[in-house]
């Protein structure tokens, strides 16, 4: 019993460190845009992140073979261009905290898309989560008083949609290959998806990158901490905790992002945004709580590396 308590305490500590890394990274990414364009930063993050993950595969002697190239390529485009690239674009004009919350609507979109794509119907308390998320987005967008960052908010939602579709595709792939290693399943799409991201970075006009200590540190933070270390912490926690508990803890990341942006970037949400964020966070928490039930068979939120 003491050993079990110790293992769970270690796993919860790993999750706390993980959510701090993911949550604070929204401030890091927003600040890095002072020195690099959004697609330039996204390209560096994804390409070098993939290299680090392949190094982890090699060091830990995990399988490195490529499975289902077309599927892995599409996953890579969704995760790297549709998710990472679009969220970086959203951060150009949008606040770090608000972008974090809107991007983390991913579990809500996953519930909706799993219905037609996987035949997993929404039922019971899940409807409350859906309604809460929709109301939250309406409060944040405030369609009766459109603001300058409305396009940025739309991009943040689209990044969450892309993340959700990739999560469903990942589950479909896992059903076909149940023994496929999780890091392998992350490394290959990241590498394949980083190539079009690099191409976009070269084709889209942007000011020259200002190589500064902060930019280098931001890239290393994303590649090493949010990439390799985050995955190792995530896998360590999943081995010792129920998936629902681990996923619920990861939902703290957007909360930390909002608080960090408030303190460091002085992004103070107005009343409507606060209500909207609270409703979305309630929705995410409810989805995670429902995942803890033994009868639940839905898709757990994938780790975001953000």
UniProtKB/TrEMBL annotation:
It is a multi-pass membrane protein. This is DMT family transporter. The chain crosses the membrane at residues 12-29, 41-60, 72-92, 98-118, 125-144, 150-170, 182-205, 211-236, 243-263, 275-292. It comes from the Bacteria. It holds the Pfam family EamA. Residues 13-141, 152-288 form the EamA domain. Keywords: Cell membrane, Membrane, Transmembrane, Transmembrane helix. It is found in: Cell membrane.
